[in-house]
Amino acid sequence: MAVGCGDASDEGEPWAGEGGSTSTEPTSDDPPDEDPPDEDPPDEDDGSTGGEDESSTGDEPDPTDTADGSTGDEPEPSGLGCEGRDDLLLCDDFEDGSVDGSLWNVIEDNGVEVSVDEDFSYHGGGALRISLPSANAARGGLVHTAAFPVPDNHFFGRAWFYVGPTAPQTHSAALAATGQLDGAAARYRLDSNGGRFNSRYTHNPTVEQHGGLKKFGYDVPVEQWLCIEWEYDGPGSSMRYWMDGEEVVEMTVTAESEEQEWVAPIFDSFEIGWRTYQAAEPTDVYWDAMALASTRIGCE
Ligand SMILES: [Ca+2]
Fold first, then answer.
1. Which range among 19-33, 107-121, 141-155, 248-262 shows the weakest confidence by mean pLDDT?
2. pLDDT value at position 34?
């Protein structure tokens, strides 16, 4: 069962996830080699005091930011299924046996296979599976546009994540919300480097740091399900993540926390999947019980 707030009018529309509807080619601000392998060495295990990458993120976020009511309260369990969830902007529990083409455009670049696995899931009897070969710029995922723009350009997300048998150690991207800002794609993302999740912002005209601005982090668990929640607040230039229900404050971005504001575009698409900018060991990434909403959704 999968539901979206939009109708199916976007079905069949060319994938517009990378910089609007102009092209399906990689955009200039996000080439496959955007990050060299040594940009975020795997041994970087201290995101709060890391190397040059952290130079723009010296302001530790105020943990009290989590108590602002709209984002910090633990939601009441509302179930993981999508049946009847008209309160959500988008919901897919991958229970239909295949990818719902009315909601998603599928990306399979450089040998990646995207499918619904009915034998392995967190919830119910199906999950999205991204089978990654060892290849540069391997990219598999789903892009949704119909729910965008979202109210107030501000949304929350929730999805259950699994990777195995290994977690890619090279630079990878898992989630991305994209829009146009001053004529170029700007993205709020969840990436990983050296097996560690990080908040990420890319907008080539204004971000000089190679590979984008980033804040570490959270160790990517291997062969275990992880509930990932996120908040992308455009007007607030704010990004938050929760892992298994706990906010990862090291990854929290606000307009006040950064030397350079992470100016959000008007989000026009959302991508979930996995892409490796450099070759990693072959592995599988799974996503299940994903949803987008205007309020925090919760893990169960
Ligand atoms: Ca499922």
1. 19-33
2. 47
Give how many domains the chain has, as a whole number: 1
Residue 298 lies in a domain: no
Domain limits at 116?
2-31+49-293
Is 39 domain-assigned?
A: no
Say how many Å lie between the CA of residue 125 and the centre of ligand 1: 5
Ligand 1 center–CA 122 separation, angstroms: 6
Q: Quickly tell me which residue has 């969830």 as its tokens.
A: 85
Cα(166) to ligand 1 centroid in Å equals: 22
Paired tokens of 138? 């391997």
Position 300 in a domain: no
Query: What's the CA-to-centroid distance between 151 and ligand 1, angstroms?
Result: 27
Q: What is the CATH number of the domain that holds 287?
A: 2.60.120.200
What's the CA-to-centroid distance between 97 and ligand 1, angstroms?
10
Which of 279, 210, 207, 265 lies closest to 235 in space, CA to CA? 265
Nearest Cα residue to 212 out of 35, 5, 14, 32 = 35
> Is residue 41 included in any domain, yes or no?
no
Helix H or strand E segment including 139: strand 138-144
User: Could you give the CA distance from residue 105 to residue 14 in angstroms, rounded to a whole number?
Assistant: 8
In the Cβ-directed half-sphere of 195, how many Cα atoms lie within 13 Å?
Answer: 17
> Rounded to the nearest whole angstrom, what is the distance from the C-alpha of residue 238 to the centroid of ligand 1?
29
Contact 223, 234 (CB under 8 A): no
Lowest mean pLDDT among 15-19, 116-120, 197-201, 238-242: 15-19
Distance 247 CA to ligand 1 centre (A): 24
